[in-house]
Structure to design on (265 residues):
């Protein structure tokens, strides 16, 4: 990889940031288009999060959530954030392949098709807010001052997601099997991530796997503040390190492969 490749990749990213209205429109389109013609439209996302959250909380409350008085909120936030991360990984791995016709025929920066996933993720979070709000009302939880700490956590999740999406999208243009492998992995990751189980109630290999799982730390720095507690500093350090590494690695791989993507698509 040469300095010229890095320079061209940076120019591509800068060009996408200069077209934020287009990025926002593409993200909005991708979020709403799958629900075109549906009676409740994109509120299926809200319903999906509600079914998962209330269903899991009802089934596992007495086993996995006995130590958490606001277990329903715990699960609702976990499901919401894991859904956003799933969007970044599943759709990110197919971002360039899916929009190959646009890429080959419209002279837009390639990174636009990655940044739009951040817009889609934000829309998914907004549509999930009613579920979290209802869960808070039912459990008697009110937001406290530490809730403001969830905002930098959300920024790190978006940075981590965009970085990994750029990495996976670049690799998938050359290795098409990657998208299928990522989807299979994400179906399994929900059981390895403390979405509905609590780390403090676990010990041994499962607790160790949680510590090695970047999703755990990213979700914790958003969920704990909303539950009224301040996350441990090591969660922030690990989350910042993971987000920075994902962004840097994604950019470097994108820079190295960008010039050959048109041929592979």
């Amino acid at each position: 990889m040469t300095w010229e490749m890095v320079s061209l990749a940076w120019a591509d990213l800068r060009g996408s940031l200069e077209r934020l209205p287009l990025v926002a429109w593409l993200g909005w389109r991708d979020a709403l288009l799958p629900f075109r013609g549906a009676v409740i439209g994109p509120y299926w996302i809200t319903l999906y999060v509600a079914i998962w959250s209330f269903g899991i909380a009802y089934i596992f409350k007495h086993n996995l959530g006995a130590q958490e008085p606001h277990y329903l909120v715990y699960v609702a936030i976990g499901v919401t954030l894991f859904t956003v991360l799933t969007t970044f990984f599943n759709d990110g791995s197919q971002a360039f392949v899916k929009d190959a016709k646009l890429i080959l025929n419209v002279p837009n920066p390639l990174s636009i098709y990655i940044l739009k996933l951040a817009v889609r993720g934000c829309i998914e979070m907004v549509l999930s807010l009613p579920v979290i709000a209802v869960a808070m009302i039912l459990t008697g939880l009110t937001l406290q001052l530490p809730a403001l700490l969830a905002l930098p956590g959300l920024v790190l999740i978006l940075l981590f997601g965009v970085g990994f999406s750029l990495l996976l999208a670049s690799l998938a243009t050359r290795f098409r099997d990657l998208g299928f492998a990522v989807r299979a992995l994400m179906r399994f990751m929900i059981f390895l991530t403390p979405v509905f189980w609590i780390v403090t109630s676990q010990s041994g290999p499962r607790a160790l796997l949680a510590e090695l799982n970047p999703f755990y730390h990213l979700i914790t720095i958003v969920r704990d503040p909303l539950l009224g507690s301040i996350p441990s500093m090591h969660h922030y350090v690990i989350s910042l390190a993971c987000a920075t590494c994902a962004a840097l690695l994604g950019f470097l791989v994108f820079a190295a492969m960008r010039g050959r993507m048109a041929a592979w698509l």
Summary: The chain has a mean pLDDT of 88. The radius of gyration is 19 Å. DSSP finds 13 helices and no strands in the chain. Residues 3-264 form one domain.
